[in-house]
Fold this sequence. Notes:
- The protein has helices at residues 27-34, 69-76, 98-104, 189-206, 223-231, 239-251, 301-304, 306-316, 328-340, 350-360, 372-381, 404-416, 421-447, 462-474, 492-506; strands at residues 11-13, 40-44, 60-64, 82-84, 127-131, 134-139, 149-150, 158-160, 170-173, 176-179, 213-217, 233-237, 255-266, 272-281, 284-291, 294-295, 346-347, 393-396, 399-402, 451-455, 478-480.
- The protein is α/β, with parallel strands linked by helices.
- Among the domains are: 11-139, Translation Initiation Factor IF3, CATH 3.30.110.120; 291-480, ATPase, nucleotide binding domain (Nucleotidyltransferase, domain 5).
- The strands form 4 sheets. A 7-stranded mixed beta sheet has the order 18-19-15-14-13-20-21, with helices on both faces. A 6-stranded mixed beta sheet has the order 4-1-3-2-5-6, with helices on both faces. A 6-stranded mixed beta sheet has the order 7-10-9-8-11-12.
- The termini are far apart.
- 50% of the residues are buried.
Amino acid sequence: RRLARPAQPFALMAREDQIPLFSEPTEKEWELLRSPRRPIVVLLHKPEYLAPSVAPGLHTVGVMLPYTGLHHLLLRGLPFPLVMTSANFPGRPMLIENDRILRELSHVADAFLLHNRRIVARCDDSVLRLGPAGPVFLRRSRGWVPEPIPLDLGSEPILALGGDLNVTFALYSRGKIFLSQHIGNTEELETLEFLEEAVAHFLRLLGIPRPKWIACDLHPGFPTRRLAEEWGKAIPIQHHVAHVAGLAGENGAEELVGIAVDGYGYGLDGIAWGGEVILWRRGEFRRVGHLRPVPMPGGDLAALRPGRMAASFLYAAGLPPDEAGLPEGERKMVLSQLQRGLNAPLTTSAGRFLDAVAAWLGICSERTYEGEPAMKLEALAAQGKPLPLEIPIRWETEVYVLDTVEIFRALWKARKAGARAADLAATAQWALAAGLARIGLEVAKREGVESIGLTGGAAVNAALTQTIKEEVERKGLQFLAHRKIPPGDGGLSFGQLVQASYLLRSQTLP
């Protein structure tokens, strides 16, 4: 409550002998925990040990071992782990000046342990999760930054500024990509100022001038795009194309069918994309599949109030919208928006579909942090098994469409027949993943492509990854996943660099 994050999970710092009290890490997870880089590792936890407020509604918790002498001293005499969080408010950069910390966090912390060493550059903890395809970054920061990622993208230096949420920037120079630490959400002025400071710091460290080519997101309203246009020659890159290009670049692939799943990205047709299948070949791309477009009543408000998306799916399926879990007044307003098509832009977002299912099942009526409904749905689904369900895919105007409205209708019928909530949650995830995988396989077969990959913020979901990986490998094709960069927006700038470099080399800038 003090940090205005009522449901966002915290991380734990614990000694090795304390971790078995609340979790049973696998051998590989222990390797990650003990790494000299000391990341936060997301582990399954025993709910009976942790206070519910540590990771509300989740089956996992972030854990790290002490990595400084001070940490070891703090933990030496304690019989329990410590709950850890950064010295900042949600969406804003960490405070690094002692006087500001004492002044601005006096109502948050009861005591302060300060240091006389000045912090030169902010760097949040890195966060990893062991997924079906190996370790995956939720955040790549302390311990990895500024270690370069070798990749030859030609002779032209490029700077990429990412999107607007979970922003990182990336700098390409002389066969290396330098991906920055976590910057944050640039809707906040302080974060945008931090971005400018961090870019200047990297350029000083590397001893190079700011490149004239600046890659950015296609969205015309993002602060990072405006900054790119101020700083040099902007190269706008569509959000999901950047994700797929980053996956290709990281894996050294010259062509692939990329499945991009997340909450939002400005589409080439002006609507909100987020459940896309993209054929990518050396910078050239074609959208070959997507989820069925559904309205977002209230626009961005539908992402904060997932019951609005539940009402949208129920309405589209011809089912009673009163099961969306909305208060009566809000439900009537949403229904009016849907009936009149007023302030209800279309979306193909996988995130909004998962949000709708979470709200409909009654596990998340309000999103208090990014990804909350889908994370709580994943936790519930871990207790269930997918039910048999026909995957509704159709061919429509040169693309395949996965009909998530029909999936929602099938879930509704199963619930009426007595299906458990956990099984319905598992079915929703499986149907989404299997449907997108089958579209990808059909495109790969038609185009003669041997690799299919998964990217985007929802790619950290273990069940989605497992299903798509199994579907792809069952057909003898190669499954590509992220291992060096985050699949979400923390890796977006990397993909923007890759895509921009192909456009520059082929002289096909828009």
